[in-house]
């Protein structure tokens, strides 16, 4: 039997319905949306703001275990940046067991749910045993992520990463041996993981190239051709232009800046997610925006690494799609990430409401343009495009991924639909997400997830093993 909900305020692509009637079928898809209760039907009332769940478009789940553990300097360190942080990350990778990998992922996926994300794109590169020997099951570590997502109920777009070299023209380092595949073994892994969809119908498998530093042009093209043969709609992700060091290395090695190289050699389109894309010149901004690719912004991770500022205003004005990832999980909150993105730009540009203006391709708004609404809607669309999960809007035919925001939490108290999303992003730090539905099923109710105590106990045990 389909279920009918009367949502006090229901988010729609062009505004709000207050109330809105949302009908969800047994298959978890939205059957109808209307401003009036269908004749002869009774509806379950949901108080507060009903908004679509967001897809987190970039995650390395295991890096959650490093959060708060690298914020110090010892000795006379000349510099401290992404590359010095990476050494600490590799030290942890060396000790990661499959059990710890799953336990950490389960905790971070639980956190994502509770902060309003209903799916994640997991950029997964720890494939093998410490030292590089393969597991008896080549998909062991991938299967651990699938199990963690299934345990929590979070939608998963799994992106096994092709990682073959330690830099342009350099072999992989000993610390990188857990990550390395040749293209044939990589495509075999993708094929194996696609078969897991029999048991996990909402699992999506995409392709990820670690970066243009870690794969050669020939490897990139062979992997893309192989993926295209398996699934021409598969999502394609790559780390790109995160640091000026990376831009310089690619320009010296391949003869073009990274995004320009992708534009010239891969036919970038809307299947692609350009993760970070921090350092773009004017030609790359225009080309990437026009390609339809999503820029995968991870504002808090980029800030903590000292990467630099993404050209958000220029990219947005060019009609570029963008979304949000929580990457190394300094926070697992979309609101925190959007606040960092907006406020970082305000500081840099010394002005307010930096993108609250109509975009060539952005959502349609009537009346004042609100920063919180623009950010939320862009992150929603970009996340759905990058994940391909089938949610991203509360409209007919989409997966019923619904968040109920509690209007009685201090952060939303006294607000109405016009400013509720501004308040969530810029009106306080309290998390107003009360209930989370994915595919028509409630996975969090009243802030409570039924597996939370067990997931936290497993995480605590994993951290004890990793840090002693
Ligand atoms: Zn990343």
UniProtKB/TrEMBL annotation:
Required cofactor(s): Zn(2+)
Cross-referenced Pfam families: Amidohydro_1
GO cellular component: a single term: cytosol
Superkingdom of source: Bacteria
InterPro entries on file: Amidohydro-rel, HutF, Metal-dep_hydrolase_composite, Metal_Hydrolase, Metallo-dep_hydrolases
Gene3D superfamilies recorded: Metal-dependent hydrolases, Urease, subunit C, domain 1
Keyword entries, A-Z: Hydrolase, Metal-binding, Zinc
Domain Amidohydrolase-related: 51-443
GO MF assignments: deaminase activity; metal ion binding
NCBIfam families: hutF, PRK09229.1-2, PRK09229.1-5
Protein name as annotated: Formimidoylglutamate deiminase
Organism the protein comes from: Pararhodobacter oceanensis
């Amino acid at each position: 039997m389909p279920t009918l909900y009367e949502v006090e305020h229901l988010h729609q692509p062009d505004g709000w319905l207050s109330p809105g009637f949302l009908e969800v079928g047994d298959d978890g898809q939205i059957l109808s949306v209307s401003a009036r209760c269908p004749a002869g039907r009774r509806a379950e009332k949901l108080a507060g703001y009903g908004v679509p769940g967001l897809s987190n478009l970039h995650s390395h789940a295991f890096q959650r275990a490093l959060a708060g553990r690298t914020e110090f300097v010892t000795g006379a360190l000349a510099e401290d940046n992404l590359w010095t942080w990476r050494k600490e990350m590799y030290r942890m990778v060396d000790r990661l067991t499959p059990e710890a990998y799953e336990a950490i992922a389960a905790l971070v996926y639980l956190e994502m749910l509770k902060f309003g994300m209903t799916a994640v794109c997991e950029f997964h590169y720890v494939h093998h045993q410490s030292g590089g020997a393969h597991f008896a099951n080549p998909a062991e570590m991938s299967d651990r992520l699938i199990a963690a997502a299934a345990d929590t109920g979070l939608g998963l777009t799994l992106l096994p990463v092709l990682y073959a070299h330690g830099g342009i023209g350099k072999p992989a380092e000993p610390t990188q041996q857990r990550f390395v595949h040749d293209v044939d073994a990589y495509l075999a892994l993708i094929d194996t993981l696609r078969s897991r969809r029999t048991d996990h119908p909402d699992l999506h498998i995409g392709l990820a190239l670690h970066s243009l530093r870690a794969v050669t042009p020939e490897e990139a093209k062979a992997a893309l051709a192989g993926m295209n043969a398996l699934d021409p709609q598969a999502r394609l992700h790559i780390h790109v232009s995160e640091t000026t060091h990376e831009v310089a290395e690619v320009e010296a090695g391949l003869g073009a800046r990274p995004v320009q190289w992708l534009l010239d050699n891969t036919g970038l389109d809307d299947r692609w997610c350009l993760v970070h894309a921090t350092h773009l010149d004017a030609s790359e901004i225009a080309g990437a925006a026009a390609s339809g690719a999503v820029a995968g912004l991870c504002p808090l991770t980029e800030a903590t690494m000292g990467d630099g500022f993404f050209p958000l205003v220029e990219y947005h004005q060019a009609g570029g799609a963008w979304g949000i990832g929580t990457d190394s999980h300094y926070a697992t909150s979309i609101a925190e990430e959007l606040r960092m993105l907006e406020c970082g730009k305000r500081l840099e540009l010394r002005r307010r409401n930096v993108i609250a203006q109509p975009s060539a391709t952005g959502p349609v708004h009537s009346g004042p343009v609100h920063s919180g609404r623009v950010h939320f809607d862009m992150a929603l669309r970009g996340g759905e495009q990058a994940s391909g999960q089938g949610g991203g809007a509360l409209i007919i035919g989409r997966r019923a991924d619904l968040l109920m925001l509690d209007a009685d939490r201090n952060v939303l108290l006294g607000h109405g639909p016009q400013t509720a999303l501004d308040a969530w992003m810029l009106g306080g730090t309290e998390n107003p997400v009360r209930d989370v539905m994915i595919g028509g099923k409630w996975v969090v109710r009243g802030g409570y997830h039924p597996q939370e105590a067990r997931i936290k106990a497993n995480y605590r045990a994993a951290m004890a093993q990793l840090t002693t």
